[in-house]
């Protein structure tokens, strides 16, 4: 059964300023600073969120130990971690939440009193997005496309929400098999398997979760046959650039209930802000602002 993330947070000293950031590669276009800083300002916090792009610095994952130590030395309170460092950061942390450990990826690191505490807010962002905007959809049988980094978080969310049977499709069949095995070990044998016949699986499914890069800028196209889209199939997308992917456009035209990837992006940021500061953000305000800025 679904339960909101109940991770204990160490509150900041009242009135302290907050310094957070994002480690990643090629992150010039990220919307995270705007999301975090606007909401923090509305909450009355003095909060700076600084992206640290490793690409122009000519750095890769081997620089993570040094860059984390530098962030601590400069007084950062927390960091988001994005592509390609979500796995590589794990051995450098003092603690990792149970969910992040199970997913095998950390996207949020809280820095407190010399300790580095890792979390994954991507899975919670996807789960909360679905719970808010498609609360009543059937979860008996769900097909998921994509078993990479986002796919691991989203599959964890779907099973936590109570999906009965999750069927994974990935161009890399071994990756889908490996993720299915890991999920079955945690959530119970037989709940996840690889799709041998995508069209046949879609014909029997209640919903489709799209967690591959197909549809994002630079990766146009449809990840499933267009004929699979029918009014009784709901469709949830993780891609949010653009917000309306070809899959969502076609699914809406076919009469499907749909969910775009923007909500997941906003909700993972909201939960990271809460973990960084101990202050609960106004999620509706964050969602409204994200939609207005799109
Ligand atoms: P990744 O490279 O780790 O994994 C992508 C997977 O998709 C790979 O396993 C690949 O084999 C598979 N794949 C590619 N094309 C496919 C196809 N046509 N059919 C089936 N499988 C296919 O990438 P990722 O980090 O998982 O990111 C995937 C997408 O999720 C990106 O577009 C990213 O922007 C998005 N994302 C969104 C959010 C959000 O908050 N909304 C968060 C994280 C990632």
Description of the structure:
The protein is built from ten helices and twelve strands. With 294 residues, it is an alpha/beta fold. The chain has two domains: 17-121 and 268-293, 3-Layer(aba) Sandwich (Rossmann fold), CATH 3.40.50; 124-263, NAD(P)-binding Rossmann-like Domain (Rossmann fold, 3-Layer(aba) Sandwich). The strands form two sheets. A six-stranded mixed β-sheet has the order 2-1-3-5-6-4. A six-stranded parallel β-sheet has the order 9-8-7-10-11-12, with helices on both faces. Strand 11, helix 8 and strand 12 (258-259) form a beta-alpha-beta unit. It is globular, with a radius of gyration of 19 Å. The two termini are 33 Å apart. Nicotinamide-adenine-dinucleotide (NAD) is lined by residues 83, 122, 125, 145-151, 169-172, 175, 211-214, 216, 223, 238-240, 261, 264-265, 268.
Write the SSE topology.
Elements: E1 18-24, H1 32-42, E2 47-53, H2 64-73, E3 78-81, E4 95-96, H3 98-103, E5 108-112, E6 115-119, H4 122-133, E7 141-145, H5 149-160, E8 165-169, H6 173-187, E9 192-194, H7 198-204, E10 207-210, E11 234-237, H8 246-253, E12 258-259, H9 262-277, H10 283-293
Parallel strand pairs: 1-2, 1-3, 4-6, 7-8, 7-10, 8-9, 10-11, 11-12
Antiparallel strand pairs: 3-5, 5-6
Helix pairs in contact: 1-9, 4-5, 4-9, 9-10
The chain binds nicotinamide-adenine-dinucleotide.
Nicotinamide-adenine-dinucleotide (NAD) binds at residues 83, 122, 125, 145-151, 169-172, 175, 211-214, 216, 223, 238-240, 261, 264-265, 268.
């Amino acid at each position: 059964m679904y339960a909101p993330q109940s991770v204990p947070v160490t509150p900041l000293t009242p009135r302290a300023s907050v310094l957070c950031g994002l480690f990643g590669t090629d992150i010039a276009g990220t919307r995270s600073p705007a999301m975090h800083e606007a909401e923090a300002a509305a909450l009355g916090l003095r909060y700076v969120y600084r992206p640290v792009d490793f690409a122009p610095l000519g750095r890769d994952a081997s620089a993570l130990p040094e860059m984390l130590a530098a962030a601590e030395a400069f007084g950062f309170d927390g960091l988001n971690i994005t592509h390609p460092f979500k796995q590589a950061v794990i051995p450098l942390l003092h603690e990792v939440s149970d969910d992040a450990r199970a997913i095998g990826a950390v996207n949020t690191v809280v820095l407190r009193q010399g300790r580095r505490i890792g979390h994954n807010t991507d899975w919670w962002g996807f789960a909360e997005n679905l719970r808010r905007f498609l609360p009543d959809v059937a979860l008996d049988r769900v097909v998921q496309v994509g078993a990479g980094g986002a796919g691991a978080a989203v599959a964890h969310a779907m099973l936590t929400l109570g999906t009965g049977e999750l069927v994974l499709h990935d161009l890399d069949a071994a990756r889908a098999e490996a993720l299915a095995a890991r999920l079955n070990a945690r959530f119970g044998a037989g709940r996840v398997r690889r799709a041998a016949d995508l069209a046949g699986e879609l014909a029997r499914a209640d919903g489709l979760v799209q967690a591959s890069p197909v549809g994002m800028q630079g990766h146009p196209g449809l990840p499933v046959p267009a004929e699979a889209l029918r009014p009784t199939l709901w469709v949830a997308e993780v891609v949010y650039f653009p917000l309306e992917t070809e899959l969502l456009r076609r699914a809406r035209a076919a009469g499907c209930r749909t969910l775009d990837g923007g909500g997941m992006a906003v909700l993972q940021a909201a939960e990271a802000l809460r973990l960084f500061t101990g202050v609960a953000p106004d999620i509706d305000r964050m969602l409204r602002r994200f939609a207005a800025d799109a």
